[in-house]
Amino acid sequence: MLKPERVIALDSIVGEDDTDTRLLREMADKAERYILSFAWCLQLKEGFFADGFGGVLAIFLFRADISNLGQDQWTWVFVGDIPSAYLEKDRDYGSPQDAFKRYIEGLDEWVAAARAGRSLRGLIPIEARTDFETTNAISRRADTLRQHILPHISNNRFHPGPQSQQ
């Protein structure tokens, strides 16, 4: 996938070829369904593709109305051959790379807590079993993402503007 210099509206996603385009658009649909599955997500107003690789990983950014937080809240969503998750966008996660790095750190924290039998409350919200095999698989996946994918994720800063693009 060519690295976007800015986020791309969901209806404008184009991959390196027809297969990549189809996979990325399917991942966009999955990301929308994922974020809308939470009762606190009242409405999606905009969605953008930030970076990714069709069928492997995609990072999206949504502007949504969130109960208890208000209107026009920005949320990063990660989907693909990884545990789906979201992160509220704040100044610390201004680029897809920043957000993805935090996602990977969140997986590490989740694995450590699951292995130690500690509460997962307040950690990255992934749905996975906490057994030995699953935590090892997630740990290996986090290492692979950190070493082989993270360096290739865009570090362009996202600045919402009149059209919510950089």
What does this structure look like?
The chain has 166 residues and is an alpha+beta fold. The chain has one domain (8-152). It contains three helices and five strands. The chain has a five-stranded antiparallel beta sheet with strand order 1-2-3-4-5. A hairpin with a 4-residue loop joins β4 (70-80) and β5 (85-88). α2 packs antiparallel against α3. The relative contact order is 0.15. Residues 161-166 have low confidence and may be disordered.
Largest sheet: 5 strands, antiparallel
Count structural domains.
1
Q: Low-confidence stretches at least 5 residues in length (pLDDT < 50)?
A: 161-166
Proportion of beta-strand residues: 15-25%
Treating each run of at least 4 consecutive H or I residues as one helix, how many helices?
3
What distance separates the N and C termini?
Answer: 19 Å
- Helical content, roughly? 25-40%
Order of the strands making up the biggest sheet: 1-2-3-4-5
Computed CA radius of gyration, to the nearest angstrom: 15 Å
**What is the averaged pLDDT score?**
89
Based on CA inertia axes, which overall geometry fits? globular
Q: Helix-strand pattern, N to C? A: EHEEEEHH
Secondary-structure class: alpha+beta
Number of strands: 5
